[in-house]
Amino acid sequence: MPRNSSIDHIRIVLTTLVILHHTAIVYGGSGGWYWRQETDGSNPLLLLFNAVNQSFFMGFFFLLAGYYTPQSFDRKGARRFLADRFLRLGLPLVVYFFILSPMTIALARTSGGHPFWSGWWLMARRGKFEPGPLWFAESLLIFALAYAAWRACRPGRFAEISHIPGPATLALAAVAVGLASFLIRLAVPTGKLILWLQLGYFPPYVLLFVFGCKAARNQVLERVTLANAKPWAVVSVAMLVLLPIVIATRGGHGAFNGGWSWNAVIYALWDPLIAWGIILTLLWSFRTYWAGENRLTVWLARRAYGAYIVHPPVVVALSLCAREWATPPLVKFAVVGLAACAGSFVTASGVLLIPGTRRIV
Question: How far apart are CA 294 and CA 346, in angstroms?
Fold first, then answer.
């Protein structure tokens, strides 16, 4: 499959959103992060920003990962395919787990007066290891093993699709993964980790990865039309309006992150219902309006994966530098977030100067 500039541009935007998402948590968004200056969920705009991001951006990454999986497997065979996956996913995961994770925790602890260098070593000795955002690499390794096992059991081509499913099929898929998420969240609410994974968010991830695999050979993602995207864009806008209303009117009627409550049902269904429209609209609009590449976008696309890997210490360091700045949280979010995006891509550029890293990141 030839390289597609519009999909590269989507990867750049998704990586930028990941960085901004984690910066938003610092200043009043919702989610888990190494250090925050404002109370969790205290800023309604950043809370909504994070909720919308959570609904689609990691699922979109899984969709794109699945999209490029069949071609890679066919070209390399099972052994080389898995070896490449363990190199490109496993090695960054190990580096983050044992080096960047304790380093980022040590950075966050400097806000309490703890030293950084000795604190980094202390965190390592105490076993403060976790994959951070590289849970995505951990998940893709599991998905790659599952794909290779499937191909071993079912030799030949992975079952294909030739077009974007119609609105009714996509609606059924949204309801199915929403209900699956609700059922999983009865036992594993969002925010609870099993092997560092939030399983309550995984039904759409699995579906989108499988869809990407099935859509690859006919390049379905590169043929999304306005007719495919428009009805779901309307649904996404409706969901964007609905969530604040539900939070305002039903905030005291049960948890949204899991359990037997209508709030949990609504949130589980809300995720895919808003996600489908955003994903389809981005695929159509980027192919239509941002398909041409230039030197900057080529530079950014080459460093997007590296920026994703290194952004946590960059976000923490910059947000700590700005903590005494007396300005509203939204202004801090905008300034620190943009600086963190630039800093992460520049840091990734430095990582590429290390011998051997170009084959990995």
Answer: 18
> Residue 268: CB partners within 8 Å, gap ≥ 6?
178, 179, 181, 182, 185
Residue 2 binned pLDDT confidence (cut-offs 50, 70, 90) = low
CA 361 to CA 349: how far, in whole Å? Answer: 10
Question: Tokens 């990141």 label which residue?
Answer: 361
Residue with tokens 């300005």: 327
Query: Does residue 22 contact residue 49 with C-beta atoms inside 8 Å?
Result: no
What pLDDT digit, counting tens, does each position of 109-132 carry?
A: 999 999 999 999 999 999 999 999
Bridge partners (DSSP) of residue 212 are none
Q: Tokens 């649904």 label which residue?
A: 235
3-state secondary structure of 194: strand
The CA distances from residue 190 to 51, 123, 185, 256, in Å, are 12, 26, 7, 9
244 neighbors 44 (Cβ within 8 angstroms): yes
Tell me the pLDDT tens digit for each residue of 302-314: 999 999 999 999 9
Angstrom CA distances, 326 to 107, 141, 319, 331, stand at: 21, 43, 13, 10
DSSP structure class, residue 111: G
Say if residues 43 and 346 touch (Cβ distance below 8 Å): no
Taking the C-alpha atoms of residue 37 and residue 35, their distance in angstroms, rounded to an integer, is 7
- Cβ 220 vs Cβ 164: under 8 Å: yes
Cβ(274)–Cβ(244) under 8 Å?
Answer: no
- Structure confidence at residue 158 (pLDDT): 65
The more confidently predicted of residues 107 and 246 is 107
